[in-house]
Amino acid sequence: MKKALYIGLASLMMLVSLSACGTTNIANPAVNNGEKVVEEATAEPTAEAQKVELKIQMGSPRFKEQFEKYFEQFKAKELAEKNIEVTFDLEMPNPDQAKQVLQARLTSNDAPDIFDVHANDLPTYFKAGYLEDLSGQPAIATLYESVKSTVTLEGQVVALPLESSSWGYLYNKKIFNELGIAPPQTLDEMKVVVEKLQANKVKPFMLAFQESWVPQLMTALSLGGITSSEHPDWIEKMNKGEASYADVQDIFNIIDLINANGTAKPFEVGNEAGSTDFANGKAAMWVQGPWNAETILKVNPDIEFGVAPLPVSNNPEGTMINLSVSTTLAVSKSSKNKEVALDLLNYFYDDKDSSALFEELKFNPVSTVHKYEVFPWVNEASKYVEQGKAYQDLKLPNGVTDEQAKLLQSYYAKEVTKEQFISSMDKAWETAIKSVQ
């Protein structure tokens, strides 16, 4: 009886099993038609992102917001494409202190991974062995040749040009047009313009001398105009100890005119405040470059300003536009994060994103990837260049520009005379030459 019962139960279980062969197991969909389905292996979990901190020094605090935004775009790109999570230690000292801060870091073996250098100072850092050779980087292949030459030393491209300029002084077009004034081409014409502005109760020049690099622009333009037109071998002779600032003391003709016809209390006005005042029409002219355009237009989007060459004598051939590459980006040769640093450097010429950055910063295009409409003041300056009224930015020995800047502040304050200025600059030049011999 028990045996018959066991047989019956076994038969029943077999029938249930057979009947299930044509059904899907709903509780476990991996079992179909009575067979276990082997699922494909899922993708391996994403590896943890490599973490890299880039140390960056750029003496451009006025562009802090724009650069931080661009770095965040790079951060997302680097994470998506290389699974590298980048953070930034960004230091932005004022231009007056930037060189000193950088030199202190370099000499104490605390070099930033990326740092900005004025193109004229590149030879000093190159000879000291601080600059990585960028010649083989993709971004360099897109550089305009005329710009590339400014950052090439001994066959190596040692920095990435960021900010290039065709510059002179800025002038308020509305004020000029209302008074029927055109940009003067000689020193005497500038005196007439100044008199007309004063007669109409308009301050001719904006003075913002709180930061010494701003008044130094007066010597940058006046020296450039006079040496290029009258003393083309002056720098070469100075380097040999065969010349003096006394040879080019006519630079003081325009400097004195500017100082005597400028806005009040210049030592209380820095570059930012000067940009605001100029944007609001408190002076008709400012010896300042178009690199301040972004700040000026932020204050007054409707302002129309032009760029014109500064007259330095009654020889119109000396009234010239300065062609320069100022800000360049270098990678430290000792960087421990060189791969990511180079990625960021190349991203500054990204064919999709960099045009928007350069346009927002009001920078000139320097690469074939830059596709955007240039600004009216760029076209205005370019017309002088096309006429041959331009010169390449002078390359002065290291430290000479800084000394000029300090002395110009003291000269305005009547703490040094013209003769003392000349003597001090001759000595500063001689010291700078001896330091590299």
Estimated helix fraction: 40-55%
Q: What structural class do you assign from the helix and strand content?
A: alpha+beta
Mean residue pLDDT: 89
Distance between the termini: 118 Å
- The oligomerization state is single chain
If strands are numbered along the chain, what order do they take across the biggest sheet?
4-3-5-14-8
Strand content: 5-15%
The parts where pLDDT drops under 50 for at least 5 residues are: 1-43
Radius of gyration: 32 Å
Q: How does the overall form come out from the CA principal axes? A: globular
- The total beta strand count reads 15
Note the total helix count. Answer: 17
Largest sheet: 5 strands, mixed
Topology:
Blueprint (H helix, E strand, L loop, with lengths): L1 H18 L11 E2 L2 E2 L13 E8 L6 H19 L1 E8 L3 H13 L6 E5 L3 H6 L17 H4 L3 E2 L2 E2 L2 E2 L2 E4 L1 E4 H6 L8 H13 L13 H17 L4 H7 L10 H10 L10 H9 L5 E2 L6 H7 L5 E4 L12 E5 L1 E5 L6 H10 L6 H8 L14 H11 L3 E3 L7 H13 L5 H18 L2
Parallel strand pairs: 3-4, 3-5, 13-15
Antiparallel strand pairs: 1-2, 5-14, 6-7, 8-14, 9-13, 10-11, 10-12
Task: Report what the structure shows.
A hairpin with a 2-residue loop joins strand 1 (31-32) and strand 2 (35-36). With 437 residues, the chain is an alpha+beta fold. Helix 8 runs antiparallel to helix 10, helix 8 (213-229) packs across helix 16 (400-412) and helix 16 runs antiparallel to helix 17. The termini are far apart. It is 43% helix and 13% strand.
